[in-house]
Amino acid sequence: MNILVADDELFARKAVVQAIRDWGHAKQVYEAENGREALETLQANRMHMVFSDIRMPYLSGLELAAVISKQYPHITQVIISGYDDFSYAQQAIRYNVENYLLKPVDHAQLFETLERCKTKIALSDEKRQEEIVQACFYHRVPPKEAEGLFSDSYIVVVLRTSPLAREMVVQETRRMLAENGFRRIVFPDKTNAHSIVAWIAPNGASPADWTPSLHARLEEWFRSFRLSTGHRIFAGTSDLHSGAGALAVAHREAKQAVMCGLICGDDRVFHADDAWKLGVYRNGWIESWGSILYNKMAKGRTREAENMIRSLPEIVRKDSFSVYMLHDFLGKITAVMNALIEQSADEEEPAQAYLEWPDLNEYVSLEQLTDDLIRSVRTVASRLGRGRTNVNVIEDMKRYVERHYQEDISLEELAKTRYFVDPTYLSRLFKRKSGIRFSHYLASVRMRKAKELLTQNPDLTVMEVAGAVGFNDCSHFIQLYKKFYGTTPGKAKTSAH
Hints:
Blueprint: E1 2-6, H1 10-23, E2 28-32, H2 35-44, E3 49-53, H3 61-71, E4 76-81, H4 86-94, E5 97-102, H5 107-139, E6 155-160, H6 166-179, E7 183-188, E8 195-201, H7 207-229, E9 234-237, H8 247-264, E10 269-271, H9 274-277, H10 283-298, H11 302-310, H12 312-318, H13 323-343, H14 366-385, H15 390-404, H16 411-419, H17 423-434, H18 438-456, H19 462-468, H20 474-485, H21 489-496
Parallel strand pairs: 1-2, 1-3, 3-4, 4-5, 9-10
Antiparallel strand pairs: 6-8, 6-9, 7-8
């Protein structure tokens, strides 16, 4: 930690500098005898803390604080002054000054301030490292700040769990890794509601020593977590890498590996190689299976087609499908559905919206995937048979909301990708058949689910409940909850105790 002490009084400055050195946690202590010299020092060196006297020539301590607050917001500031005037403290507060110490500086107070700021800086540095890692993951190009941070060998682990348990898993993962002596950066995957990303490195151990131990500890924790909470966790890990430029590669490897858990359903840590090792590729069988599905759908034998889809988990697990074989299997199902959609075009619904290839990263179980595929089969069958009624559409929309209320749902997206109709037409149809707007119905389902969570899980925070029912903005959630129930979720939580 680099610290700057700015004070025009030589002996007072030297006393603070010596006390900081005696503290023993400062990497480098710089001195400046006025505000102008302090700014020059800040421009030439990366600083973590600044102690400055209020009254200095050229640039006062408060003027310096204002500049630091604007240009170097990451720096923690402490004001030192011989003037016991609270008005100075009030001005300092406006510039995000951490503390206000009177001369002569009491060493106990100084050490207390240093320890508090050290903790704050450590948390800030950890947050910054997390931001750097995320930038490397998601933007593919490592920022300059990442250079030199990841020279040691590391692995990336992607953990998969339910959205309701994700924040708990993030915190528990951080705790478990810290207790076992691992350096780590753990954060929710911003591209996936089920996933958590962890960058993990040892503290001085060789790769051969720490990776097997890490896998064993993670798997033990997964089993314990499932028994205590009912939530399953499975994980995928990358190969060993070093350097910021390899973070994106490691992330991809871990994402491929974690999908093995979707197939096996085990409380295990899967390696990137496992994505290839599971099962034997059978392209001819996939083609044959797809042809049978196509014929059943084309002939209106929808129930038999659904049963074929419903057997998918058993087939996949029995034959130990690899991730890539499962991916191709889903591609064949999607191709069959889209070929049938093409055939279903008519004058009333000329616009064709095709099904997308299911993304395995969006699922935590084969059963969840199967449910979505069965809904696709039913939708396509309705188009083929021309037997879909407006009432069926509205009921399907309601069922969809009941299942996916925690996700980002839009009527426009449903209209285009699920029902293949104009969004305006679907909005009017829902209002006419249900008596309320779709947005109001979605909100009512989310509020009902939120009320259930608050009643059944009083230990959950309001923010956790908001996230679990599909709200990114907690304040909006609180306002809407009060509008529906006449009270805030916080009061509802209190009454539930």
